[in-house]
Amino acid sequence: MRIGSLAVCAVMAMAADIGGAGAADKSPSAFDHSFQSIDGGKLDLSQYRGKALLVVNTASFCGFTRQYEALQKLWEGYEAKGLVVIGVPSNDFGAQEPDAEGEIKKFCEGTFGITFPMTAKYDVKGANAHTFYRWAASSVGTSAVPQWNFHKVLIGRDGQGIAAFPSRVEPLSGIMIDAVEKALARK
What confidence tens digit (pLDDT) does each residue in 129-164 have? Predict the structure, then answer.
């Protein structure tokens, strides 16, 4: 009987360990996560506590890459009101972000004049997805799981997930502006 109980405990422990990497993240808020910056330092989301975040997985060689320009305009228009746009380069979709961080940064700054924070390259889907993306899926739901490049996750000033927008939703579209303004109006 005792051996049976030990066997059950061992199986449960292995199952918990197996689920660790791909399991949903149960962190209380987005502000509990951090990335490596594209410059190599730490990009801790807690530094943005009290601000709304728009986290976008990006790629340099995608049909949606032109959205960088609109994301920069959104950042410039709403930064003073409390919005932080964060770009997360990812090679998860069609291998459309093959370059190293230095080349990505050079491209973004040189081609689109990007000044909003950018992270190092990360997986945004699957078992190796960054913890922020696992948290977003558990917070917002399956709509927060990127299906392609330039998927957007909107986080409220309280660090809670509000909504997710697929790649086709333009950063300066009415639906996006409305959602951003509502997020910024919440205290």
Answer: 999 999 999 999 999 999 999 999 999 999 999 999
Question: How many Å apart are CA 39 and CA 60, to the nearest integer?
Answer: 17
By the 8 A CB rule, do 84 and 48 touch? yes
Q: Give the length of the chain.
A: 187
- Say if CB 108 and CB 129 are below 8 A apart: no
- Residue for token pair 């199986």: 11
Query: Of 84, 85, 124, 118, whose CA–CA distance to 101 is shortest?
Result: 118
Q: Fold for domain 25-185?
A: Glutaredoxin (3.40.30)
Chain position carrying tokens 């530094």: 47
The rounded distance, in Å, linking the Cα atoms of 140 and 17 is 25
Active site residue 62: yes
Catalytic site residue from 53, 54, 59, 62? 62
84 DSSP β-pair partners: 53
Q: How many CB atoms lie within 10 A of CB 136?
A: 28
**Looking at residue 187, what is its pLDDT?**
78
Token readout for 71 is: 């994301």
